[in-house]
């Protein structure tokens, strides 16, 4: 089955006419005792379990069928868990024998993981590269441990941009040698970000839930472009242990789901202290007593102070991959926010916006050094692996030009390999990033007493990334370029307010629509 799912040999040109010919607004669904599966939420699924209208086995079978049907075109999944049905049977049995109140919201619910999140099972953890095929990890990633504890079913591994877009600057977003070219299920074009398969999978209903990992725009951008909800948590709120990392300073693991409520349930399950990631100890102070689901409030917008920076309007069409709808659509959404009780503080200025977007402000300098250190540390800890260092990966790529599509090159890896730890240049870059954050976003939020900054698309991702700040992208509409989202970003630990705001907006607009195709007969 794994071989079938890689399906890199499928011709896109063959399937495009088929897909275009069957466009419609009807989502794929099946029925089990009168219960339809498709755009279903976690809450709906749990109610169906409770009233014996659905089993975890039936649910997993549905997603496996959808993967087999859609994945040869969309390339959102690299591998399915061969034990998924057994895990579903176990969940069904537990539901019969255990007290309902002892089971979490995610119990028996399938989830897919970005391919750089390690699982200690029969699946491969490869970051999209054949260089890690067959490697053996020492343990589940910290977030996977928590998901298993919550009773979630690890359904499979989502495709991603190889090495989180830290191999080649010319490789397309969503591409990896192991998974092929991931495709946006709405446009068959750019899925955006390195967590591309995580967004593709839930957008196309090939999974109920997913996890992504963001260094800079890898959750927010694919969520925006694939009409799903993505939460980029405060750095350290979720464990990065067992993740093929880029930067411990910027990396964060977060949910990508179809609704804000589902994303909040996943965040509840994965947030918390992990002894293998010391950043989680400090960040645990931000986790609210009672969790995040309590902030799913229909009136969550009431009284929230939301900042609007009009200077972003001039950046939207200058930033690659950030095409969104017209300014008029954004204005309409701002009116909705006002009508629902939010206080909009408009026409604000972010002092260092020009420096952040139009000059070399040091992020890439820092990330290249951090990538080498982080990858070498991850590879060193593996029980078995074909490669043990970044240098080994570079050599592997050189020796496998057919498998690794060497025409894309590996310029980023070569630049990272040339670094030698955090030296004078890197320290200067890190100091500049800290100064830009302190004198920019932090000062901006505090001075204007804001609960969140609201922007169209994912334009604020860079600001949130370098400061380790949280953000949530929510579906906001559709244009000729495809879906687009609206992003709410805040200071560290502001997830409760962001969830209130995002949920309030989602419930007021209900913009998400499933991809416009009927079932494919592939």
Automatic annotation (TrEMBL):
Residues 1-31 form the signal peptide. Residues 59-457 form the Amidase domain. The keyword Signal applies. Keywords: Signal. InterPro entries: Amidase_dom, AS_sf. This is Amidase. It comes from Quillaja saponaria (Soap bark tree).
């Amino acid at each position: 089955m794994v071989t079938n799912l890689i399906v890199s040999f499928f011709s896109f040109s063959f399937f495009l006419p088929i897909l275009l010919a069957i466009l419609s607004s009807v989502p794929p669904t099946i029925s089990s005792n009168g219960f339809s599966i498709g755009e279903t939420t976690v809450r709906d699924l749990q109610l169906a379990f409770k009233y014996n209208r659905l089993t975890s086995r039936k649910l997993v079978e549905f997603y496996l069928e959808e993967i087999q049907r859609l994945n040869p075109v969309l390339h959102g999944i690299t591998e399915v868990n061969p034990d998924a049905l057994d895990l579903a049977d176990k969940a069904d049995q537990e539901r019969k024998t255990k007290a309902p109140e002892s089971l979490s919201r995610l119990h028996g619910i399938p989830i897919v993981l970005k391919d750089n999140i390690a699982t200690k099972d029969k699946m491969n953890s490869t970051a999209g590269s054949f260089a890690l095929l067959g490697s053996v990890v020492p343990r589940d990633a910290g977030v996977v441990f928590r998901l298993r504890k919550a009773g979630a079913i690890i359904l499979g591994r989502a495709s991603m941009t190889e090495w989180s877009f830290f191999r080649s600057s010319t490789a397309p977003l969503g591409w990896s040698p192991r998974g092929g070219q991931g495709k946006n299920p709405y446009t068959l074009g750019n899925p955006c970000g390195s967590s591309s398969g995580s967004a593709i999978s839930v957008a196309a209903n090939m999974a109920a839930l997913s996890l992504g990992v963001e260094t800079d725009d890898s959750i927010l951008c694919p969520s925006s472009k694939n009409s799903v909800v993505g939460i980029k948590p405060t750095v350290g709120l979720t464990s990065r242990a067992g993740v093929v990392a880029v930067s411990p300073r910027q990396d964060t693991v977060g949910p990508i789901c179809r609704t804000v409520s589902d994303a909040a349930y996943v965040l509840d399950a994965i947030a918390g202290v992990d002894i293998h990631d010391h950043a989680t100890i400090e960040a645990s102070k931000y986790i609210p007593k009672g969790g995040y689901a309590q902030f799913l409030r229909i009136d969550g917008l009431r009284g929230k102070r939301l900042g609007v920076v009009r200077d972003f309007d001039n950046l939207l069409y200058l930033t690659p991959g950030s095409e969104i709808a017209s300014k008029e659509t954004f204005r309409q959404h701002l009116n909705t926010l006002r009508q629902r009780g939010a206080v909009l503080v408009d026409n604000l200025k972010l002092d260092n916006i020009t420096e952040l977007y139009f000059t070399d402000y040091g992020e890439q300098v820092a990330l290249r050094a951090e990538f080498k250190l982080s990858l070498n540390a991850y590879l060193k800890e593996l029980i078995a692996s074909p490669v043990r260092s970044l240098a080994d990966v570079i050599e592997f790529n050189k020796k496998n030009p057919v498998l690794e599509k060497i025409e894309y090159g590996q310029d980023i890896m070569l630049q990272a390999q040339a670094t030698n730890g955090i030296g004078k240049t890197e320290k200067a870059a890190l100091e500049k990033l800290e100064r830009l954050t302190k004198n920019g976003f932090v000062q901006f939020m505090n001075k204007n007493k804001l609960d969140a900054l609201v922007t169209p698309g994912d334009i604020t991702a860079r600001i949130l990334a370098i400061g380790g700040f949280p953000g949530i992208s929510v579906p906001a509409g559709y244009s000729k370029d495809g879906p687009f989202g609206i992003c709410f970003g805040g200071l560290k630990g502001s997830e409760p307010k962001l969830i209130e705001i995002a949920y309030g907006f989602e419930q007021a607009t209900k913009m998400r629509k499933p991809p416009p195709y009927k079932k494919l007969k592939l």
